[in-house]
Amino acid sequence: MKIKFIYLFPFIFFLSLLVIFFIKFEKIEKGESIEQIQSPLIGKNIPNIKIIKFNENQKISFSKYKNKRFILNFFASWCLPCKIEAPLLNKVSSKIPIIGIAYKDKEEDMIKFLKNYGNPFSEIGVDQLGSIAIEWGVYGVPETFLIDENGKIIYKYAGAISHELYKDKIIPFINND
Amino acid sequence: MINEFGHLLLIFALFISFYSIIIFALNILNFSDSKLLLIRKFSNLNFFFIFISFLILEYAFINSDFSLSLIANNSHTSKPMIYKISGLWGNHEGSMLLWILILTFFTFLVSKTKVIPKGIFFSNVLGIQNLVIFSFLLFTLFLSNPFERTESIPFEGKGLNPLLQDPGLAFHPPMLYLGYVGLSISFSFAVASLITKDLKPNWFIYLKPWTLVSWCFLTLGIALGSWWAYYELGWGGWWFWDPVENASLMPWLIATALIHSINVVEKRYDFINWTILLAILGFSFSLLGTFIVRSGLLTSVHAFASDPYRGIFILIILGLSTGIPLFIFGLKNFKKNNSKFFLLSRETALLFNNLILIVSTITILIGTLYPLIIELIQNSKISVGPAYFNATFAPIMVPFVIVMIIAPFLSWQKTAKKNLIKKLMLLLILTIFGTFIFYYLKPSSIFGLICGSLSISLSISIILEVFNKLKSTKQSFLLDIKKINLLPKNFFGMIIAHLGLAVFLAGITGEQFFKIQFEKELTINQKFKLGQYEILFSNVKEVNGPNYVSRSAEFDIFLEKKIVKKIISEKRFYTAEKSQTTEAGIYSSFFKDIYIVFGNKVKANEWIIKAYLNPMVTWIWLGASLMALGGLVSIIGLKNRKILKIED
């Protein structure tokens, strides 16, 4: 029987897809998914980089938050998960200050976004070039950092925050448990 | 007690399907008629068991039996009855049971058909169906059991996701599953023909009705889902290229290709291997979609509880049920028919469009999985947005529609050039004329003009085709209406479905390129303009619904100082689920929709109001319904079709 390679091509194509899925699952099993990769910044002070405030020609001063806990959230108007996490973030904002960093976003889009989905941020910084994101080790938007009263990052989460995360991490963090 | 009985029936069904598989395996070695009788009986019994089990679970949902953890987690006593019923498939475990119910139902129907000769081929089809049933039953019983009890019975359930408490969404999953699972029949036919290596029974003739049925359901299911997204999410669009939407679009594209390639097999006995491949891929992509949705590999609006073990199990099902058939296909395909191909022939046009459908499917697949691949290679997370799909999928579809426009003028085998040019000239002139009229409506971009003129041209081509068929003699321009009776019904099916695409394209053109948007903070009694309409923000009220409280805004729509419609936009807060939904206020008419979203409060008595004037948007779903109707007409047409007599 003659075997023609072209007829085996669909099989090979599907096989390679399966391999990709399996590698991904291996990673999840080992707990290596991005959400769980602990940022090297954890336990360290927040990166010392100037963040220019939106619409104001001054930088965000973190000294204001001395002896206070706060949350820092990277977001963008073009990001779908940011829309998904917006209601929850608004809920969180009544309990703790949240600093928002607009990642590679257009001003007018961002204003629209905040109008439509609510503005949970006490202060908004602009990261037009993505350089602040690099300093903070951000993989993509949204990412959320929990920062304690000593200015140390104690937790980081990549992806839209969920009700589980809210219950398991954010509420204990706010209550300082 | 009764719930345990439902659970027990599922276990019985598992054993029955396992026994069917053993018969199937023995059949391959040596076939006997008595075994065939048994496997048919088993298929009937299996459907009966699953059906009773499904009814038991439905009964538990209706009675809010919170001793089942599934119901405690997904239902609530205050929910309206319809959502208690649809609550069964609004979650992972219940929807798996619905999936299996439909799977056994289709298998039951196949075992009842009288057209297929009762031989080894037929028993292989049932055997493969049972293999699929078995693996899904195993999955459901061990990793997503709907009949699992809670340890302590709660007084009240957690409720159903409010976004899903909607009539559109109540019927969207069953429709989609009927489509997905229907494709398993085409799959089984294809695999059985590969195993038996016997094309005598002309399996593609039996294949056609099943493929058409599942295609119709898929079309309706996808349309229903997109309609829901349009009015429920309040984002002002109708398609978001979300991974789950893509997961349903991919099998649809494959099924579309399959229907057309079956036509070529029927007419010219060609494309046989290609058709078999498509039949396998159709169901594979359905499984791939299920896998993507339920494994939690990709984030999307549709969040099912994600459990990596579930994902791995579905991955194994996907791997085996796709890998093995594709491997067999690689080794045991059918000999090529050495028929001649001419560039200007209908089969070439069909082949070309088949290829485009596959390319577009792969484009969507790449876009959907790209974030995953990038994450593996670079460990960084990215999201592929509509920008990618609009830049890749849309341009691919332009030549597709052009070929669709020309194809009716081509004949099978070979087309006379002279005749063709004459007909095409007429088409071209009419198209240019139509495009000019359209140009004066000022679409917002050149792509809008292309999209609109394609829609016009496609409709003209369809009209000309009907005209050609009805001409009393070749030369005259008089129509002979009596000829309608002579035309086959599936011709009308094709005409209606293609017209559906033209209407759909017109809808997209209107929605994408003529849309008017408005967005501002307004206080009560303020007016704003939207196109030629004037809209008054007249009132804000608090209303209590059956299981939610809502704040609703009233708008009066004026046209030339006369009130045409009052509409209400809501923000609902569901108390049991503690979450909020947006109900856009929509004034829908044949040519345009006025779509108003009641946004957040900015100051006392001041809210953000978003409004859209969406021209022709209803045509999108009208077009999709026409396509499904065309499919239905074709199925009815199959009944009167002469079935090729095959000697055994």
Report on the architecture of this protein:
The complex is a heterodimer of chains A (177) and B (648). In chain A, a hairpin with a 5-residue loop joins strand 4 and strand 5 (153-158). Chain A folds into 2 domains: 1-35; 62-174, Glutaredoxin (3-Layer(aba) Sandwich), CATH 3.40.30.10. The relative contact order of chain A is 0.18. Chain A has 5 helices and 5 strands. Helix content of chain A is 38%, strand content 16%. Chain A is an alpha/beta fold and 177 residues long. The longest helix of chain A is centred in the first third of the chain and has 25 residues, at 5-29. Chain A has helices spanning 5-29, 80-93, 107-117, 131-135, 163-175, and strands at 70-75, 98-103, 123-127, 143-147, 153-158. The termini of chain A are far apart. Chain A has a 5-stranded mixed sheet. Chain B is α+β, with helices and mostly antiparallel strands and 648 residues long. Among the domains of chain B are: 1-165, no CATH class; 416-514 and 616-648, no CATH class; 516-615. Chain B is 62% helix and 12% strand. Chain B has 17 helices and 9 strands. Chain B has helices at 2-29, 33-62, 69-74, 81-86, 92-112, 120-143, 167-196, 203-232, 243-268, 272-295, 308-331, 346-378, 386-406, 417-439, 446-470, 489-513, 617-639, and strands at 516-523, 527-530, 533-544, 548-559, 562-574, 579-583, 585-588, 592-603, 606-615. Chain B has a 5-stranded antiparallel sheet, with no helix packed on it. In chain B, a hairpin with a 2-residue loop joins strand 2 and strand 3. The longest helix of chain B has 33 residues, at 346-378. Chain B is globular. Chain B starts with a helix and ends in a 9-residue tail after the last helix. Mean pLDDT of chain B is 85; it is low at 643-648.
Average of the residue pLDDT scores of chain B: 85
CATH topology grouping of the largest domain in chain A: Glutaredoxin
Helix content of chain B: 55-70%
Sheet having the most strands of chain A:
5 strands, mixed
Percentage beta strand of chain B: 5-15%
Extended strand count of chain B: 9
Q: What's the average pLDDT of chain A?
A: 81
